[in-house]
Specification:
Layout: H1 2-27, H2 33-48, H3 53-164, H4 195-199, H5 203-206, E1 214-215, E2 218-219, H6 222-233, H7 242-255, H8 261-272, E3 276-280, E4 288-294, E5 303-309, E6 316-317, E7 321-325, E8 331-334, H9 336-356, H10 364-382
Antiparallel strand pairs: 1-2, 3-7, 4-5, 5-6, 7-8
Helix pairs in contact: 1-2, 1-3, 7-10, 9-10
Length: 390
Amino acid sequence: MWKRDQKLTAGSQFLASKTVLSTWKEAMPGDDEAGSEQHAAKAQQEASEPMSEEMLRNAYHLSRLRSSSVEIREKGSERLKEELAKAQRELKLKDEECEKLSKVREQLEQELEELTASLFEEAHKMVREANTKQATAEKQLREAQGKIDMLLAEVTALKTLVITSTPSSPNRELHPQLQSPSKVVFKKGHSRNKSLSSAIVTAATQNTQLKPVSKDGREIDLILFEEFQSWKEDPTLDKACPFLERIYQEDISPCLSFAKHELTEAVQAAVENNTLSIEPAAAQALPVVKASAIECGGPNGWRAEVLTKCALSGLSRTCKHRIKLGDSGNYFYISPSCRSRITAVCNFFTYIRYIQQGLVRQDVEQMYWEVMKLRKEMSNAKLGYYTEES
């Protein structure tokens, strides 16, 4: 009886497992319709055949695998749902951040537009101010140039007055007191000063050929006058022209000939280039080489003078002046005799530069005699004659 019940129980389990197996096999995908029919036939054959215990055990294990796979699938689906929810939350946060960043970008673009507009406005304002300042500066420049031209004309007129009237040859039109009483005519009313107009000589007067005449104990040397006249037509400072070549040989070179040859050449070059300056020397700055008491009259009958070695002659003299060549910071103390010789040559070069620049409004004869006077001063200076100055 018990064995019979056990067989019935085993048969029912086998049928249940068979049903599960058939159901699982139906759920499994087949290769094609022939395969599905083959599986169905096989399942039917197996159902008709009696099942052993091993087959029942395999069916049981198969049912357990199916239940575990269902559990795994459920857990996987739940995990995927959680990850999906998490991803959705992250996407929502990213969307919020993107929205904030877009708002910031819009704000920055608006500020940039405002800043650009303000910069353009400021630039236009600066341009307007610069144009206004430029117009004002140009107007002031034109006014200043006008004033400069006026001042230059006045300076030229004053130089003309000074040059056309020298102590050795005064201009009698500029100094009425030098005219003879018979020539002085008094007029009623106001008279116009003609000093400036008389100083300007026409070109026809300058080009007039002068003949040698005797005037105030002077007589024009025809050779020297012709050389000066040819130089006057094309004034230049070139030593090769006959006029300056003669003066260099006869006056300038002997006048600027000192014991210190190297410094002498530098001084001559500075005089020619108009870069030499002479200034009084301070007493405390003199380089004393020897002190001696020289009798020269006074309350006590003598006084002490500080003797300094002259840089050009090399002799101990009372050097009250010093010279500087160009932009160098070196000073050279010179004696009064050397200063007189340098000054005479500088005066000559200054006058011929005025002629070259067209600042002298004299006729050719007056210019010639002024040049001769300057040559005379150079001759006196090279012979040792000089005027004592403080």
